[in-house]
């Protein structure tokens, strides 16, 4: 979907210009990431640089709330029903049938707080819906993070190579990117899902990652294009540093901000992509489950047993929201311009 | 707090308003309620019906168009000698004409079309229409091209099925005849179900579009068929195959002049998947005359149908696989919507791979599996919450919705049972079969269906305790895998019962095309020969009792339950009645009325 | 410029070509085209397999099959010659007519949603940028992230249940208790107070005024039966005309130049007179008449405002045209609203449908038919708009902040230019540059989103074409869908580049 795409597209002719203005601003901010390797002075400040970013990030209340929420969801999902054979603290399993208790209504009460037997209720076969939702959350998180990781690796590699080496390599890689970017993510994912959905969650996620790296590649390339012209790269070249060293030691650390921010967007996009594919009947199939599958299966329960529809929905929104806020916080943390605006 | 004062002020103002909050503003005056409480004469001119897919063609007899959503429309725009009624049995349509069996050997039936019966363009319905139907459905016009894989020869007319018509001799007659005799070379058990709604297509249109003259009551076409004139018939057949097809998703109708109707309604227009039929002013009959001016078929997928009905976008819905939630959601809407439940002829069952070497080769293993499947539990979970009358299905060829179900079941004691899982019995059967290790069963189901997944989960839950080890096998392409030996050990899916006597043959006989588990039993084969050739309805029941007894004794498969059926409609509607057959709820839509 | 466009066109062509190859092979390898025939038997099965094989060229190997499809597309590029079909679907029907049918409703949906999201997103984005780190800014940030995070069909299902069905029930007998009215007033007051901001005193005043005005307005609308027979009425139009004149003047010229304000008011007067005249003319017009009237009105306003504008002729005339167009829009909305009671009656008293893109057999005036379209658009548009809206707001905000920190803005402020001039003339224009690229991506993204929306709301559009095609492993319709979406993506990208050059004089295209 368009989430990845909403980044400023740095392949535009104007980019060089905006980078120039950016540079002029950077000069009056101590410890901007871009001045990191510039002088010896920076060596001593390198540590405080990371600290600065951390500080900025933790000042961002939304991001802080987001990361708290995400960690909570993570811990809840993986500790409650356990994972990969390791048992969790919740005594029910998502695929065990049981008698239905009180028509499967949720037993969760907030005041006084009590989980009860089945906090999120039970589905039609009496499966514990809390365990089922947790299982779905695990699946969705695994899918989302694999997609994010794959998109990050491919996107960064393609973007870095294209941006650094330029010439034919760049033309070739960027045309491939253009080809894939022409097809809307949902469309290409739907076509791919038909082929790999039955192969299991991990291959499914890997393939989704393979089709969602394009936006990231463009952004990384844009960063590389501007950074490779900077003085510190010139000086590194002049002392005979290898391309590998320049890429990994000098340029890549300065693009971390863009990469991380785009990856968070890819992750939140992947959560929603999985949901959309489930709706089209192209996602995870039973007996396994995912959040998208859970809400799709219980669509007709909205007015009847709303908890079946709303709980997984709340988790989808919670995760996506948290990731988006984290991304926003990271953007602010890595980009000194944003915080400076306060007048 | 900075906002403290704001807050308290807000609270104050709310409080002040609360004091005067007992009244309300707005609302419509009640003057219009007087008009709605009017008498019977105040009928709406339009009734809108939801169908899950847009109709694909006016001619529903071809292989490509033989689909339920075409039948839904045909019920209104076509008529013939008989149709399936709410009882699941055939009912004669005396508006269209009459028929009687005049001989059993050879099977001969005399048909008389109503003198006044005409197509909606005024052309009489007569011999040429009948003869074209025979020509198209009998498979007697091979093109000479054979299919490489199957070796079957293609026919000029791509009919969906040649059952019955292939056994029928060419129908003799002259142009303009309203009477004809159908003479069968071999007896055919379902002869009554052949000349039913949707069969007859306007021959004069096909002739004209195929380059023949329609004058003289279709004499040219009749000659071409009688003389088997391939050159003349080829364009006619092409038109029959595709000329009545609609564009995908029905953005518009072809020229209505090409679509004359023989039923109480005729096609009027289509927009974006919504089809409108209006009363046929040339309809001659009285019994089935349309009661409401306009009927609209609106494409609404099943999942969205409840909300569409609640919002009044449609007046009638008939969702195909209703769940507990569907029913409760409909009931929650309140008294504006009436909900009817019943059983359909569609049923769920588990087929077993019993080829030599397969898991279920041994009868004892099949019986053990049947014993541990919690059929009664499934009915409790999936059927009775929708249809309280629902029960476990014990027969293959009859469903509880049919009158003869109980009679046949009484005659097949081996088939009887309450469907409660009997784990002890299953265990001992497995022991008898000499199975000491858990029997591994890969159970295939459609990956897109949560219902099937739930059914498999129930089977696994129970049978794993009895000595089986079930592995759920979701497949997106399950239907293509059905006919691949070894692709599955057990599979759960549905069959749609037709209410016909002979149509199930290929499911049960040795080497039958739909006999996916490789079942073979000589007695069953010979019983089917008797059934298919039998033309006396009286004899069918004992024959089928015997068949069911055999199928149960040899544990052909495990039948689970007949799927529940829901029809919901605006309470303003009168006359809606469920029909368990594939004819669908519109079977009597001509009689529906709606209070406006 | 020409060289740039030519070069981009050639590159775009090859990119599209490669993308179609990718898409084609993905589609045909996504499943078994005969999957649905597994349960069938007899001649039906053989005949269907034969027909399908012929229609989809399944007897041809995949690579030559792709070229056959390409050839079908080629026929459409060459004028004259062999008829253009875009190939056949699996039933043997030509794809092109299906695509043409599908495109109509989908484009209506996508364009309306994009325009709405763009306008709302940009306005809100700019306000949040101006009020950075205010409560309003935080609320909008939260809301847009929330919208970002909503699964489209989950939202759509909720919209149907709680917006359409419940709103219809309410519209059938529109009334609120006084308590509800008061609560709505309070909520509106809070929103306004947050938006306008300022010190506590100012917020209180804004809250009070907005709350009372909203509650009173709502009360009046209810007791006058506005929700049963809506419309602006003559007085409403007169007030609106004056309001529009003042608003546009404030935004585009400021009040320092009296003559411009006078000219704007005159244009509003002329437009109002036009409204009075049009009452009879517009009972059942068609699009041609409507457009012609708008053009005439715009010309008259241009002339009148220009004459009154005196020394500021050009500026005044431009504002005159803007006012004329705004008023025309208002008149159209008014007429549509006036058509509501009759249309509602024809829809059985439940005007907002949950399914379909138009009513069947609707016979009515131009206004009724278009209102019917609009009412069918409401739900899917809301669903699509809400999600794009979030993107536009975030980006406009970031972009506007970016620009407002530039030195030239500081310079403009230092020169003593009014805040209005700085924001509208200097900042806004430059902030829009990145948004053009965003639009290019978003449009294609929304087309993708339409796949879901159409399914939920029962529209027979391109999304359905695609989903049905994918499910049937039928490349014809899938590729037709992709041709449109891909071309839109490529084209919009190119347009964005050109718009860049147009908006930012420092860029030259080469």
UniProtKB/TrEMBL annotation, chain A:
SUPFAM superfamilies: MetI-like
Alphabetically ordered keywords of this record: Cell membrane, Membrane, Transmembrane, Transmembrane helix, Transport
Sequence intervals crossing the membrane: 63-90, 141-165, 172-195, 201-220, 251-273, 308-327
PROSITE patterns cross-referenced by the UniProt entry: ABC_TM1 (PS50928)
Gene Ontology cellular component annotations, sorted alphabetically: plasma membrane
Domain ABC transmembrane type-1, residue spans: 137-327
Record membrane topology: Multi-pass membrane protein
Subcellular location: Cell membrane
Residue ranges, annotated region (Disordered): 24-43
Alphabetical list of InterPro entries matching this protein: BP-dependent_transpt_permease, MetI-like, MetI-like_sf
Predominant location: membrane
GO biological process: transmembrane transport
Family statement: Belongs to the binding-protein-dependent transport system permease family.
PANTHER family in the record: D,D-DIPEPTIDE TRANSPORT SYSTEM PERMEASE PROTEIN DDPC-RELATED, OLIGOPEPTIDE TRANSPORT SYSTEM PERMEASE PROTEIN APPC
Name of this protein: ABC transporter permease
Originating organism: Arthrobacter echini
From TrEMBL, chain C:
Principal subcellular localisation of the protein: membrane
Family that this chain belongs to: Belongs to the binding-protein-dependent transport system permease family.
Pfam family, one: BPD_transp_1
Transmembrane segments: 9-28, 107-129, 136-156, 176-197, 204-228, 234-253, 260-281, 287-309, 316-333, 373-392, 435-458, 478-503
UniProt xrefs under CDD domains: TM_PBP2 (cd06261)
Source taxon at top rank: Bacteria
Membrane topology according to the record: Multi-pass membrane protein
Gene Ontology cellular component list: plasma membrane
Location(s), subcellular: Cell membrane
Gene Ontology terms: biological process: transmembrane transport
Stated name of the protein: ABC transporter permease subunit
PANTHER family: INNER MEMBRANE ABC TRANSPORTER, OLIGOPEPTIDE TRANSPORT SYSTEM PERMEASE PROTEIN APPB
Keywords for this protein: Cell membrane, Membrane, Transmembrane, Transmembrane helix, Transport
InterPro entries for this protein: MetI-like, MetI-like_sf
Residue ranges annotated for the ABC transmembrane type-1 domain, each copy included: 103-496
């Amino acid at each position: 979907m368009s989430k990845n795409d909403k980044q400023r597209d740095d392949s535009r002719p104007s980019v060089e210009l905006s980078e120039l203005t950016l540079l002029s601003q950077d000069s009056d901010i101590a410890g901007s990431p871009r001045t990191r390797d510039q002088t010896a002075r920076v060596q001593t400040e390198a540590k405080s640089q990371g600290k600065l970013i951390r500080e900025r990030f933790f000042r961002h209340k939304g991001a802080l709330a987001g990361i708290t929420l995400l960690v909570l969801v993570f811990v809840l999902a993986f500790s409650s029903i356990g994972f990969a054979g390791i048992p969790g603290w919740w005594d029910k399993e998502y695929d065990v049938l049981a008698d239905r208790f009180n028509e499967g209504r949720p037993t969760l009460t907030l005041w006084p707080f009590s989980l009860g037997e089945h906090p999120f209720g039970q589905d039609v076969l009496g499966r514990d819906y809390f365990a089922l939702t947790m299982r779905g959350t695990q699946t969705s998180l695994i899918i989302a993070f694999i997609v994010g990781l794959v998109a990050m690796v491919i996107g960064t590699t393609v973007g870095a190579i294209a941006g650094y080496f330029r010439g034919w390599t760049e033309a070739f890689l960027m045309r491939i990117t253009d080809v894939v970017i022409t097809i809307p993510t949902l469309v290409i994912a739907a076509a791919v899902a038909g082929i790999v959905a039955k192969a299991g969650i991990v291959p499914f996620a890997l393939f989704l990652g393979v089709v969602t790296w394009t936006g990231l590649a463009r952004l990384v390339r844009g960063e590389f294009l501007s950074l490779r012209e900077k003085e510190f790269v010139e000086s590194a070249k002049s002392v005979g540093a290898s391309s590998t060293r320049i890429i990994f030691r000098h340029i890549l650390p300065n693009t971390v901000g863009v990469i991380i921010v785009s990856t968070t967007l890819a992750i939140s996009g992947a959560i929603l992509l999985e949901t959309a594919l489930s709706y089209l009947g192209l996602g995870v199939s039973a007996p396994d489950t995912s959040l998208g599958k859970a809400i799709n299966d219980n669509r007709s329960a909205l007015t009847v047993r709303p908890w079946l529809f709303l709980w997984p929905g709340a988790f989808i929104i919670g995760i996506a929201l948290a990731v988006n806020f984290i991304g926003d916080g990271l953007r602010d943390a890595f980009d000194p311009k944003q915080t400076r605006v306060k007048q | 707090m900075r906002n403290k004062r704001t807050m308290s002020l807000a609270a104050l103002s709310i409080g002040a308003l609360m004091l005067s909050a007992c009244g309300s503003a707005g609302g419509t005056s009640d003057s219009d309620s007087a008009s709605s409480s009017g008498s019977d004469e105040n009928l709406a001119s339009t009734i809108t019906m939801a169908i899950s897919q847009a109709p694909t063609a006016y001619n529903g007899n071809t292989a490509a168009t033989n689909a339920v959503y075409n039948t839904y429309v045909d019920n209104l725009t076509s008529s013939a000698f008989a149709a399936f009624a709410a009882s699941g049995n055939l009912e004669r349509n005396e508006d269209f004409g009459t028929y009687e069996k005049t001989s059993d050997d050879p099977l001969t039936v005399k048909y008389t079309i109503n003198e006044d019966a005409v197509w909606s363009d005024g052309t009489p319905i007569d011999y040429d229409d009948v003869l074209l139907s025979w020509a198209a459905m009998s498979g007697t016009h091979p093109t000479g091209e054979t299919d490489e894989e199957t070796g079957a020869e293609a026919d000029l007319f791509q009919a969906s099925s040649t059952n019955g018509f292939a056994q029928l001799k060419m129908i003799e007659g002259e142009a303009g005849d309203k009477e004809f005799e159908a003479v069968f070379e071999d007896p055919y058990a379902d002869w009554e179900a052949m000349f039913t709604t949707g069969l007859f297509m306007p021959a004069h249109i096909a002739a004209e579009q195929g380059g023949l003259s329609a004058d003289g009551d279709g004499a040219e076409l009749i000659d071409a068929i009688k003389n088997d004139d391939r050159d003349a018939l080829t364009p006619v057949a092409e038109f029959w195959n595709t000329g009545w097809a609609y564009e995908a998703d029905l953005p518009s109708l072809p020229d209505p002049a090409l679509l004359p109707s023989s039923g109480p309604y005729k096609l009027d227009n289509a927009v974006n998947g919504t089809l409108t039929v209006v009363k046929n002013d040339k309809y001659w009959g009285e019994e089935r005359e349309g009661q409401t001016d306009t009927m609209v078929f609106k494409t609404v997928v099943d999942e969205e149908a409840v909300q569409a009905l609640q919002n009044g976008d449609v007046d009638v819905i008939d969702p195909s696989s209703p769940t507990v939630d569907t029913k409760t959601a409909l009931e929650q809407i309140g008294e504006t919507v009436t909900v009817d439940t019943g059983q359909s002829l569609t049923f769920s069952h588990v087929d077993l791979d019993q080829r030599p070497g397969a898991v279920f080769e041994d009868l004892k293993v099949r019986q053990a599996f049947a014993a541990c499947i919690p059929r009664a539990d499934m009915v409790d979970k999936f059927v009775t919450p929708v249809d309280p009358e629902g029960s476990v299905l014990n027969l293959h060829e009859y469903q509880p919705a049919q009158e003869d179900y109980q009679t046949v079941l009484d005659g097949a004691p081996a088939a009887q049972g309450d469907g409660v899982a009997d784990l002890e019995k299953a265990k001992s059967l497995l022991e008898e079969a000499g199975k000491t290790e858990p029997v591994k069963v890969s159970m295939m189901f459609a990956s897109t269906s949560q219902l099937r997944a739930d059914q498999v989960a129930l089977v696994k839950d129970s049978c794993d305790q009895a000595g089986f080890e079930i592995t759920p096998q979701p497949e997106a392409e399950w239907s293509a895998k059905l006919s691949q030996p070894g692709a599955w050990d057990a599979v759960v899916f549905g069959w749609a019962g037709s209410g016909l006597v002979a149509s199930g043959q290929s499911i049960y006989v040795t080497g039958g095309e739909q006999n996916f588990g490789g079942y073979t039993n000589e007695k069953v084969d010979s019983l089917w020969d008797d059934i298919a050739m039998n033309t006396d309805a009286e004899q069918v029941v004992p024959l089928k009792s015997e068949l069911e007894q055999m199928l149960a004794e040899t544990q052909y498969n495990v039948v689970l339950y007949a799927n529940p059926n829901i029809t919901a409609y605006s309470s303003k509607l009168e006359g809606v009645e469920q029909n368990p057959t594939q004819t669908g709820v519109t079977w009597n839509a001509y009689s529906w009325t709606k209070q406006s | 410029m020409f060289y740039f466009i030519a070069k981009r066109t050639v590159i775009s062509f090859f990119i599209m070509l490669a993308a179609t190859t990718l898409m084609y092979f993905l589609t045909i390898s996504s499943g078994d085209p005969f999957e649905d025939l597994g349960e069938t038997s007899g001649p039906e099965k053989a005949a269907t397999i034969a027909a399908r094989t012929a229609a989809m060229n399944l007897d041809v190997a995949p690579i030559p099959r792709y070229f056959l499809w390409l050839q079908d597309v080629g026929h459409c590029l060459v004028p004259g010659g062999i008829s253009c079909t875009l190939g056949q679907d699996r039933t043997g029907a030509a794809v092109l007519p299906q695509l043409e049918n599908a495109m109509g409703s989908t484009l209506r949906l996508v364009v309306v949603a994009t325009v709405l999201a763009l306008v709302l997103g940009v306005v809100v984005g700019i306000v949040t940028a101006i009020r950075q780190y205010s409560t309003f800014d935080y609320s909008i940030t939260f809301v847009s992230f929330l919208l970002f995070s909503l699964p489209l069909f989950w939202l759509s299902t909720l919209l149907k249940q709680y917006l359409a069905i419940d709103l219809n029930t309410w519209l059938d007998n529109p009334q609120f208790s006084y308590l509800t009215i008061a609560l709505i007033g309070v909520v509106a007051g809070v929103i306004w107070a947050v938006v306008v901001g300022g010190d506590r005193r100012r917020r209180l005043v804004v809250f009070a005024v907005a709350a009372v005005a909203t509650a009173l307005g709502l009360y009046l609308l209810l007791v006058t039966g506005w929700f049963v027979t809506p419309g602006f009425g003559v007085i409403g139009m007169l007030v609106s005309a004056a309001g529009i004149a003042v608003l546009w003047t404030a935004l585009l010229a400021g009040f320092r130049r009296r003559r411009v304000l006078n000219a704007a008011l005159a244009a509003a007067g002329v437009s109002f007179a036009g409204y009075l005249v049009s009452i009879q003319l517009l009972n059942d017009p068609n699009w041609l008449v409507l457009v012609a009237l708008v053009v005439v009105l715009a010309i008259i306003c241009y002339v009148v405002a220009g004459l009154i504008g005196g020394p500021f002729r050009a500026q005044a005339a431009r504002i005159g045209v803007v006012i004329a167009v705004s008023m025309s829009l208002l008149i159209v909305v008014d007429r549509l609203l006036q058509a509501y009671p009759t249309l509602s009656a024809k829809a059985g008293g439940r005007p907002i449908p949950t399914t379909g893109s138009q009513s069947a057999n609707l016979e009515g005036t131009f206004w009724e038919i278009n209102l019917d379209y609009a009412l069918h658009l409401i739900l899917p548009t809301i669903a699509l708009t809400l999600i794009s809206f979030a993107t536009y707001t975030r980006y406009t905000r970031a972009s506007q902040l970016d620009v407002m920190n530039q030195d030239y803005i500081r310079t403009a402020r230092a020169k003593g230019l009014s805040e209005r001039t700085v924001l509208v003339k200097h900042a806004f224009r430059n902030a829009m540059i990145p948004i053009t690229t965003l639009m290019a991506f978003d449009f294609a993204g929304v087309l993708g989103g339409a796949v879901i929306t159409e399914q939920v709301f029962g529209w027979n559009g391109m999304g359905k074409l695609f989903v049905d095609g994918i499910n049937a492993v039928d490349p014809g319709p899938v590729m037709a869908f992709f041709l449109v979406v891909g071309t839109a993506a490529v084209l919009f990208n190119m347009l964005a580049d050109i718009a860049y050059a147009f908006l930012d004089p420092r860029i030259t295209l080469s």
